[in-house]
Specification:
With about 525 residues, the chain is of the alpha/beta class. It has two domains: about 400 residues, no CATH class; about 100 residues, D-Maltodextrin-Binding Protein, domain 2. The protein has a five-stranded mixed beta sheet, sandwiched between helices. The chain is globular.
Length: about 525
């Protein structure tokens, strides 16, 4: 078997972390907030400003850790898009090293180095890092939990799982995988004195570490539950609110399955954005399992993992978890949102690295035995060459993954217009942009009023005679129904300001609602 030297692996990992950080930082200020980024940042501003430190007046559907992390960033660096995206950047960059460590524990340094290359240059990871979504930080905690589990430290693993669940409740979906991997390492020859250790020793070890795992998890989740209970008098639990916000979870209509399959497949494409790698991953996984489980009829072993070996176990476990995760998101009514797959990306990339390593072994064995000593170097070079282009495109926000990519261009200019030219106490009607207004105009005394229909907009606006009235329409959203409803109420729209997207098209138009003359 070919091994990567420890020194070369450490130097390569350090370089990958630096390169990965550069790609991730490049687009940090390029895009305006997606609506959920604006909402999370508004909650954090409520905390950081002291106006609502426990969020008693907000229907929060996320656990508190991420919100208070954003609030700390705002206190330290000031409220801005860049400050809000720092936790995601840190979590995403740290995930490169965490993936390397996890893969090295499961498969050795060679596979780990390929996994780190994939993680550093994955367009999916590059574009989610510079966002204020909860997911990049949650993924970092999940990977940390898996790393501790693979080291046999289930107490710390439980603590990390608690931090993941306190960042976003979906972190709990990874608990079974963490427990299985931790149990495997505890009961294997990796940690016990010998593979024939007495049953009572194995049992006591599992019980002790299981207790530590539970205590570590509760050390985080108990304060979360206490925080949640402080709000119950005015707001539902964040778990209950998440069911309200997203409509619960049910089996989807079979008629939608084909469309949903295509939508999820399109999202998965951007994990590498490389046609070759995207074909190799689903095609290579069945071959990997067959290689693992088939009897070793021939002597070559191109990277470990023949029947009963540890690598085989991890191949099967990771492949099964990935399959069940994707199947659940396909057949249940999860929204088809790219960020829901971010936690799965590191596992897919580790499996892809495993496939690539075995494939490189087979290829070099067939071509020339003399190439075996350069196998890892050649694999890394070819992988970097394959992913460099997609990573550069991602660094320029060239893929529709992650945050906003132009839909909200100009929203900060709209906020500046209201700050500079509109009297305090004016009324701003909204149907789409309320969360953005809450963040971008947080400290400006406007009266925000949401309207559900053109008729209710016209009725409310017609009853206001002591304040200026405004409304902002994204391009294409001003309809004849709105104009007709306002006209029937004796009102009209006067365009006073507009903004542009990066492609030169109009993004937002500000109108003042006035009485018809």
């Amino acid at each position: 078997m070919v091994w990567v030297s420890r020194r070369w692996a450490v130097l390569s990992l350090a370089l990958l972390v630096l390169v990965g950080a550069a790609f991730r930082l490049a687009p940090i200020g390029a895009n305006r907030f997606h609506q959920d980024e604006a909402l999370y940042s508004f909650w954090a501003l409520q905390v950081a400003s002291g106006r609502d430190p426990i969020l008693n007046h907000s229907p929060v559907d996320k656990p508190p850790l991420y919100i208070y992390t954003l609030a700390l960033c705002f206190k330290l660096f000031g409220p801005s898009e860049v400050a809000a995206r720092l936790p995601g950047e840190v979590g995403s960059v740290a995930s490169i090293a965490l993936v390397y460590y996890l893969a090295s524990r499961l498969y050795g340094r060679s596979v780990a180095l390929l996994a780190a290359v994939l993680m550093a240059l994955s367009p999916f990871n590059v574009l989610f890092a510079p966002t204020a979504f909860t997911d990049p930080l949650m993924v970092a905690w999940i990977l940390a939990a898996l790393c501790f589990a693979a080291s046999g430290s289930l107490g710390w693993s439980g603590l990390m799982l608690g931090l993941a669940a306190a960042t976003k409740q979906q972190g709990l979906l990874f608990a079974p995988l963490i427990i299985i991997i931790g149990t495997r390492f505890l009961t294997s020859s990796f940690l016990l004195p010998c593979s024939s250790a007495p049953l009572h020793l194995r049992t006591s070890t599992l019980l002790r570490e299981g207790l530590f795992f539970t205590l570590g998890f509760l050390a985080v989740m108990a304060p979360v539950a206490w925080w949640d209970s402080l709000r119950w008098r005015l707001q539902p639990s964040y778990l209950e609110q998440s069911l309200i916000s997203y409509g619960g979870l049910t089996l989807v209509d079979p008629a939608q399955l084909v469309e949903r399959l295509g939508d999820w497949a399109e999202i998965l494409h951007y994990i590498t954005a490389s046609p070759g790698l995207n074909i190799l991953l689903p095609g290579g996984l069945p071959c990997l399992i067959l290689y693992d489980l088939a009897p070793p009829l021939s002597p070559p072993n191109w990277g470990g993992g023949r029947g009963g070996e540890p690598a085989t176990f991890f191949d099967v476990v990771l492949s099964t978890f990935v399959t069940l995760f994707l199947l659940g998101h396909w057949v249940f009514s999860f929204n088809v949102w790219d960020r829901y797959l971010l936690g799965l990306v590191p596992l897919l990339l580790i499996l892809l690295a495993r496939v690539l390593w075995l494939a490189s072994g087979a290829l070099t064995h067939l071509l020339s035995l003399r190439l075996l000593s350069f196998r890892a170097f050649l694999a890394v070079v070819l992988l970097v060459a394959t992913l460099a282009g997609p990573a550069l495109v991602a660094a320029r926000s060239g893929y529709p993954i992650g945050g906003d990519h132009g839909a909200y261009d100009g929203i900060e200019a709209v906020a500046d217009y209201f700050r500079d030219r509109v009297p305090a106490g004016s009324i701003l009607y909204h149907h789409w942009l309320g969360w953005h207004y809450s963040f971008y105009m947080f400290d400006f005394p406007l009266v925000l009023r949401w309207y559900p229909s053109p008729e209710e907009l016209a009725e409310d606006a017609s009853q206001v005679d002591n304040a200026w009235r405004y409304i902002v329409f994204p391009n294409g959203k001003l309809t004849a129904e709105v104009k007709d409803a306002l006209a029937e109420a004796g009102l009209t729209l006067r365009r006073v300001y507009w903004t542009y997207r990066r492609d030169g098209s109009i993004s937002f138009t500000v109108y003042r609602i006035e009485a018809r003359k």
